[in-house]
Model the fold of this input.
Amino acid sequence: MSEATIEDGKVVSIHYVLKNPEGEELDRSAEDAPLTYLHGAHNIVPGLESALAGKQAGESFSVKVAPGQGYGEKQKIKPIRLLRSKFPPDAKIEKGTQFLMQGPDGRPMPIWIAKVMGKEVHVTPQHPLAGVTLCFDGTIQEVRDATEEEKSHGHVHGPGGHHHDEDDHGHDHDHDHDHDEEE
Ligand code: ZN
Done:
């Protein structure tokens, strides 16, 4: 009876393992919590999203994503130097940790720690996996229709999705807004 096919407007749950071409594991979904995303909303890297289109729950996948369709080509970007004291005192300050910073346009911008040098922390707007070919292997757990609210927000709510009642990483929109500002 499951004829839900992955297409725009579907909520998709996948289990996956991500490796680099050398076979080193970079990331994997938690055993009890598949990655859940809204298809067509650019919640995941473009190369994986387009490879999953048309598949159904129960299918497995093995996808190689070039950097241009993944986290981007590696660019020479000068790191930004910040003082350790600029970070929350309880923050985990180590290479690869992601933070949100206020970008030039006032919107939150993701940054990653590139290096820690004593009291100085070097951060970069470049994703740590920029320039890396991504090898995904996984299975599709579930495909369901997104709710209207999820579609208007552009992300999944509930298990595996956004919880607006906590600090969700600077993702600040409220649920009291009228729907007259939808496109
Ligand atoms: Zn939302």
About this structure: Residues 166-183 have pLDDT under 50 and may be disordered.
